[in-house]
Amino acid sequence: MSNGEPGFVAADEICVLRDVQIAQEIRSLAALGVFPKGILVYGLVYYQNAKRQYMISSDPAKLITFLNDAENFKLFPTPIESYSERLIIPEGEEEDITNSVKLKLAPNCRKNILKRFLSY
Prior knowledge:
Number of domains: 2
Strand order of the largest sheet: 2-1-3
Radius of gyration: 25 Å
Strand content: 15-25%
Order of helices and strands: HEEHEH
Number of helices: 3
Structural class: alpha+beta
């Protein structure tokens, strides 16, 4: 708090103002993609019309809904796999980078379906 004289600011007020300024700078840097961000994707594989199909999403609810549908048991879906990476994502590039992470999950899903069918 100021001591009542114009032009003077107490030390604790300076600290608060500095904290607010730093928080705003960090928010701005985060919006620009300066800090690493975690990307988590989920996937499974199933067979439909004698072809292997991949379902990969960053929303696990989509895959759970698919698995809970009794009709889909005929498609022999694999259990849900997950894959994550922490990356620095430039502004406007999140969708492209998320898609590249999804592509990295696909081989793991493929291995899972091979193990499942070979175990029968």
